[in-house]
Amino acid sequence: MARHRNVRGYNYDEDFEEDDMYGHSVEDDYCISPATAAQFIYSKRDRHSSFTEPLEEEEEEYVDEEPDKTKASNLTPLDQARLYSCLDHMREVLGESVSEKVMTDAVLQCQFDVAKALDLVFKQDGNEKAVPTNQDVSTTGRPAKGKSRGLPSVEVQNEVVPKIAKMTVSGKKQTMGFDIPRYVSASAASEVNGQNVPVLSKGQPMDEVLEEPESSRQSPTQGVSSQGSDDLNATPSQGRSAGKSKQKINVKDELEKRQGGKQLLNLVVIGHVDAGKSTLMGHLLYLLGHVNKRTMHKYEQESKKAGKASFAYAWVLDETGEERQRGVTMDVGMTKFETKSKVITLMDAPGHKDFIPNMITGAAQADVAILVVDASRGEFEAGFEAGGQTREHALLVRSLGVTQLAIAVNKMDQVNWQQERFQEVTSKLGHFLKQAGFKDSDVFYIPTSGLSGENLTKASQVPELTSWYKGRCLIDQIDSFKAPQRSVDKPFRFCVSDVFKDQGSGFCVTGKIEAGYVQVGDRMLAMPPNETCTVKGITLHDEAVDWAAAGDHVSLTLTGMDIIKINVGCVFCSPSEPIKACTRFRARVLIFNFDVPVTQGFPVIIHYQTVSEPATIRKLISVLHKSTGEVVKKKPKCLTKGMNAIIELQSQRPIAIELYKEFKELGRFMLRYSGSSIAAGVVTEIKE
Ligand code: GDP
């Protein structure tokens, strides 16, 4: 989103002392970050606008060549489709060595026979070297996300709507995980119920419980810097300097400039289904001017027609027909807005139990969270007690490294803005959140009404509320969250949340840069499959940029690698400092409130960053004392709720992971079983 481009920037270092960084707020941070197999699908609106965008050739690398527009546009729609399909096939064989114009000519001349067209191109190539050129997008009329674009996108739009990207685990790009191993017995599965809140000893923060014992801190040998020296040797020339010549940037200075003094903050909105998350955030976006009156009116009319008038604001974020039809958020909607001192990437996570993996994905990428609870009588209780998602969500985000939390005590209009009800809700929540590992000083409660917009962007005028509430409104609270320190100095790490083929050359991956930075022209290593490629383009919020750094959600256009080899969950890293891919590792875990004893051979799904991978608990190494981390029992027979233990996990396929002590963001994971989160863990030792 172009409007956010030049308003970010901040020297995070100033805000943080050495040990007051992301994930450290409670004593130290030993909570976990998992993630899930998710993807990042651009909304139809995005795609549509890309269709109309003029694209510019990359002058540096290619000789400019006028695309052969007329040929394609003269074809019937069917023939156009055949042409695109042929071009795709040819591109797979020819890579970028031949211009699209030459290929189009050949395809038309050979009447859509790919083999013949390839022959023809090869023959021509023998006589005269085909001039490489950039992809002719207008010939195909298809979008080229991630490509370098000279002109800003000209959106012919009468409506002002926030651009919402979607992350989902349910789509076709999901290629890893979720196939429960065959040996999951039906009886075992049926024994598991939905409620998974860890039992912690009173006042015991979860971080502390997951602290690595001294012994396991000594043992790991395969750190980031020491690991993968083979890979390094195998690709000696593949450093940052490889690829096309480019200026090395001082990323910290550039970040400062780009952000224009504003801090970047990733915010996830969580809470039980129907608590009012989408309505609250949709209304907030509307009040901030991200949705104009005309569009809002349209949503109102349409939602009325669909018999869901009360969902009009939710429709701002709930984009898909199915979400609107069902009235539930399924994917994680991502959009941006600004406060006085911050640029916020907002992620609206689904509240429904069925979509918890999606919620984990959103939360794994978040720095802070807004937990929305429904203050109405009976409703708060339903979300908070057994079967509700309030507890599970709060716990998951804490386990994922989120330490600051704003609680929107929503639908206060339903309870006449009663102070007693507000206090009842906050005291119940406060007690639980403390147990879950949140510091009191990092939790903020705000009475709101998403529907009427009260207390969202300015202090409320409702006398029943102002008589007792003098605190911040929601946007002021978001503005006063502490932004985390970004690991731009660390080796490059980028977790893939979506892979898609774009027009012609190369393919695109989207995801979040967890550490380091990337420049156009960089060589990168993908783990797995341990292969390198070149970054041909970077798109940040729909705009082509030359570089991007830790904390950015970007789309990278890659060349020199087969798309087939890349899955959701792959991690791209710098070839000189690769991440390790393994199938066996040890971890310190905290078992949640889970009724089935966890034994050796127990099947689980590891949710780690964007990966969801079936695995088994290979060994139960030891049970640890929750606070001291001392070994209480070696080789236990089983683990039960609330226990803290060292276990060894064996995944079916390799996953790229980091040791928690070296890379907090990439060292946390979550274990789920039969749709329930059963444990949170941190990686202590990588085996093989
Ligand atoms: P989500 O599932 O948490 O995203 O919840 P939605 O935003 O879809 O809202 C669920 C229902 O609660 C819708 O009918 C909303 O109109 C209603 N709702 C949301 N916020 C409020 C509020 O502040 N007051 C009242 N009375 N209803 C609300």
Topology:
Layout: H1 12-15, E1 39-41, H2 44-51, H3 69-73, H4 77-94, H5 100-109, H6 114-127, H7 137-140, E2 165-168, H8 186-191, H9 206-209, H10 214-218, H11 229-234, H12 251-259, E3 263-270, H13 277-287, H14 293-305, H15 314-317, H16 321-326, E4 332-338, E5 342-348, H17 356-364, E6 368-374, H18 379-384, H19 389-399, E7 404-410, H20 419-435, E8 443-447, H21 463-466, H22 474-480, E9 493-500, E10 507-515, E11 517-519, E12 523-527, E13 531-540, E14 543-545, E15 547-549, E16 553-559, E17 571-573, E18 580-591, E19 598-599, E20 603-608, E21 611-624, E22 631-634, E23 638-639, E24 644-657, E25 668-673, E26 676-686
Parallel strand pairs: 3-5, 3-6, 6-7, 7-8
Antiparallel strand pairs: 1-2, 2-4, 4-5, 9-10, 9-17, 10-16, 11-15, 12-13, 12-17, 13-14, 13-16, 18-24, 18-26, 19-23, 20-21, 20-25, 21-22, 21-24, 25-26
Description of the structure:
The structure is a single chain. This protein is α+β, with helices and mostly antiparallel strands. Helix content is 26%, strand content 25%. Strands 1-2-4-5-3-6-7-8 form an eight-stranded mixed sheet, sandwiched between helices. It is globular, with a radius of gyration of 26 Å. The structure holds guanosine-5'-diphosphate. Guanosine-5'-diphosphate binds next to helix 13.
Describe the structure using short key phrases.
single chain; 688 residues; eight-stranded mixed beta sheet; six-stranded antiparallel beta barrel; binds guanosine-5'-diphosphate
Distance between the termini: 42 Å
Question: How many helical elements?
Answer: 22
Kindly state the number of beta strands: 26
Rounded to an integer, what's the Rg over CA atoms? 26 Å
> How much of the sequence is in beta strands?
15-25%
> Overall mean pLDDT score?
71
